[in-house]
Amino acid sequence: MALAGAIDYSICVLNLSDKGMSDDRLTHLLTNAPEQSIILLEDIDAAFVSRDVTKENSIAYQGMGRLTLSGLLNALDGVASAEARILFMTTNYIERLDKALIRPGRVDLKEYVGHATDYQLQQMFRRFYPDEPESRAQEFSQMVMSLEQPVSAAQVQGFFMMYKKEPDCVVKNIKEIVNL
Fold first, then answer.
1. Domain residue spans of the chain
2. Distance from the first to the final alpha carbon of the chain
3. What is the DSSP string of 21-69?
4. CATH class of this structure's domain 2-96
């Protein structure tokens, strides 16, 4: 959202796992997306069942969208040539993606967004609670880093949203962050 605001683009989120999503519908949506927009395709790894939906597996996937990898690739190639549009795809499982989907020329940049680092935790705390002393941000970061499992920036943001005006509660209830 920060990028969209900085370049004055709108954001279009497409749910590829929607039951009504088909190859034709996706092509239509991407073709008619507004210029100067960021198109977000979340969880691209869960968007389709196979490269092509065949007669043999159509009963097994009844009720699911008819989006195929082939249809997705064709739609992406069409939108890639459209000017003033930026396409983002997210996945938790890049290894599950077909190589044709993420080949150079179709995907210009791959960026891994891992777990929050000490620096990121402190920066997020400072931005969310600007009136708190820096030592409080360090304390928060140290407490998160000492937890048994790492956390994502999205978890931290969600946790801060639970305690918008209560930085003391953030530190006091730090163990809740792993449940988000």
1. 2-96, 118-179
2. 21
3. -BHHHHHHHHHTSPSSEEEEE--GGGS-SSSS--HHHHTTTTTS-B--H
4. alpha beta
Q: What is the pLDDT of residues 44-103, one digit of tens each?
A: 988 875 554 444 545 444 555 578 999 999 998 876 567 788 999 999 899 999 999 999
Compute the C-alpha angle 4/120/88, nearest 5°: 30
| Type of residue at 99 | K
Q: 129-142 in b/e burial notation, b at 16+ Cβ within 10 A?
A: beebeeebbebbbe
Nearest to 116 by CA among 149, 81, 73: 149
112, pLDDT greater than 50: yes
Query: What's the pTM value of the predicted model, to 2 decimals?
Result: 0.71
CB 174 within 8 A of CB 147: yes
